[in-house]
Structure formats: structure tokens, C-alpha cells
Design a protein that fits this description.
It is a single chain. This protein has helices at residues 11-20, 24-33, 49-58, 60-72, and strands at 2-4, 7-9, 35-39, 42-46, 73-78, 81-87. By secondary structure, the chain is an alpha+beta fold. Strand 1 (2-4) and strand 2 (7-9) form a beta hairpin. The longest helix is centred in the last third of the chain and has 13 residues, at 60-72. It is globular, with a radius of gyration of 13 Å.
Length: 98
């Protein structure tokens, strides 16, 4: 496990981030401002379109630069570390969101 920008990343997460070309700043942004859903012992974080509209007003330059990645990326976090970073291909069920 490696610590980058005060977040811990598993080796698997680092591998996926590098494979998908996702900047660490996008991962941090999703964890900070994204909606989260409990999935067993972990939480899945993502940014939906409604949230993205409001965040565009607060962070216009960051959003315009990384909008595609913010829309299509989910971050799985648990045990004080980023476990993996995945591409969103289906609609996320929000029944258990908090």
C-alpha cells in the first residue's frame, strides 16, 4: 500500500489508475465531493450529473478539464485506502445511498 496526497492506495488501485489514465486529483475530487453507496464493507463514490452541474459553478476549470473522467469513474474505498478505480458502465443503484 502506498500513500499519495494523504490517501492510501492499494497496489491494485494504483495499477487501475495507471491503466485507465485517471489523474490522482480526479480520484481525490470524487472522494471529496461524490455521492457514496455502501457495498458490503466498502463504499463506492461517484459524481452524478446533478452534482456535476453544481460543482461546475464552484470549480469550473477543474470540471471542464476532467469532466469526462468525473462522469465515468467510480472509486471504491475501504479500510482507509482506495481499493480500486472503475469505469461506470451501468446505472448505479442508489437504494442504499446515504
Amino acid at each position: 500500500m502506498v500513500k499519495i496526497n494523504t490517501l492510501n492506495y492499494t497496489n491494485h488501485a494504483q495499477k487501475r489508475i495507471n491503466q485507465r489514465g485517471i489523474p490522482y486529483s480526479v480520484v481525490n475530487f470524487i472522494l471529496s465531493y461524490g455521492e457514496c453507496i455502501d457495498t458490503y464493507d466498502l463504499t463506492k463514490h461517484f459524481i452524478n450529473n446533478n452534482a456535476l452541474k453544481y460543482l461546475k459553478e464552484e470549480y469550473p476549470s477543474f470540471i471542464s478539464k476532467h469532466e469526462k473522467q468525473l462522469k465515468n469513474t467510480a472509486v471504491v474505498y475501504g479500510n482507509n485506502a482506495v481499493v480500486t478505480v472503475m469505469k461506470i458502465t451501468k446505472k448505479i443503484r442508489r437504494e442504499y445511498a446515504f
